[in-house]
Amino acid sequence: MLELHNVTKTFGKHVTAVADVSLRLEPGVVGLIGHNGAGKTTLMQMIATLTKPSGGRILFDGTDVVAQPDAIRNRLGYLPQDFGVYRNVTALEFMRYFAALKGVRDPARIRRLLELVNLHDQAHRMASTFSGGMLRRLGIAQALLNDPDILVVDEPTAGLDPEERLRFRNLLADLGFNKLVIISTHIVSDVESIAGQLAIMRSSRLVACDTPDAILGRARGQVWSASVDADEYEMLRSTTHVLHALRQGERVSLRIAHPTPPCAGAQPCEPSLEEALMAQRYAVKEAA
Ligand SMILES: Nc1ncnc2c1ncn2[C@@H]1O[C@H](COP(=O)(O)OP(=O)(O)OP(=O)(O)O)[C@@H](O)[C@H]1O
């Protein structure tokens, strides 16, 4: 459905924001994970045709979207990181405004979308009184007006409280049943329970694209738990990659990424997705 072939984006002579990224994505939820500055926003902006690649090709259902941006624009919804709502309007007025801009004439669609994002009871409330989570949900409703096949959402849960985060995550998971939903985040837990595929970016490059299970599978046998005293902890800190340390009286309970048992008594343990990604990162660094 969406194919990226060797996509690169440079800014000036010295900044390569995205380097040689190739990806093939089908409907479902895709988590685009990477630290700040890894290149996620730039990649999403190229998919949304807001900026052109410096090299490579992006194909949507076989059509080159750089040459023919309308091929994807009509079928794409985009919620940028810094999405702002005109706050002196009600939710309904806001939706009507964007419906008019997008040529959507069916008032029932606006009502259905406000229901979908659970804002129908707030339709006549001023957007200026909305919480961060409500604004993000209004943003999604707006992005869905044209019934897109691809929904691109940049850092959707930034600034949301845990309950809003969960509600927003569930909404995106539901949308992923019949659309391609690409969610960028630097918080693994935002996508680990809903993404069928994870694309991992590091320093402008795509370093992995796989199912969460495959990523976890590769990290098995690389993550260890151990309980050590303070001296041993100091030693392990300098010789291994400590993922987590919890002081418990005189002892320190550790989780460590290491290819072999890092100390006497270390037990292999089931990695979390975040630990699996960290273990992979350290393994790559050490191989380099
Ligand atoms: N218009 C621009 N001009 C110059 N450099 C840019 C521009 N846009 C992005 N960059 C640089 O490209 C790199 C990737 O930025 P990008 O915003 O795509 O990363 P990101 O993974 O989305 O990070 P964040 O989560 O912080 O937004 C960064 O080094 C950034 O400073």
Description:
- By secondary structure, this protein is α/β, with parallel strands linked by helices.
- Helix content is 32%, strand content 30%.
- The protein is built from nine helices and 14 strands.
- The strands form three sheets. A six-stranded mixed β-sheet has the order 6-7-8-3-9-10, sandwiched between helices.
- The longest helix has 15 residues.
- The two termini are 34 Å apart.
- The chain binds adenosine-5'-triphosphate.
- Adenosine-5'-triphosphate (ATP) binds next to strand 2 and helix 1.
Question: Topology of this protein?
Answer:
Layout: E1 2-11, E2 15-25, E3 28-33, H1 40-47, E4 55-60, E5 63-64, H2 70-73, E6 76-79, H3 91-101, H4 107-116, H5 132-143, E7 150-154, H6 162-175, E8 180-185, E9 197-202, E10 205-210, H7 212-219, E11 223-229, H8 230-239, E12 241-248, E13 251-257, E14 267-268, H9 273-287
Parallel strand pairs: 3-8, 3-9, 6-7, 7-8
Antiparallel strand pairs: 1-2, 1-4, 4-5, 9-10, 11-13, 11-14, 12-13
Helix pairs in contact: 3-4, 7-9
The chain binds adenosine-5'-triphosphate.
Residues 11, 15, 17, 34, 36-42, 186 line the site of adenosine-5'-triphosphate.
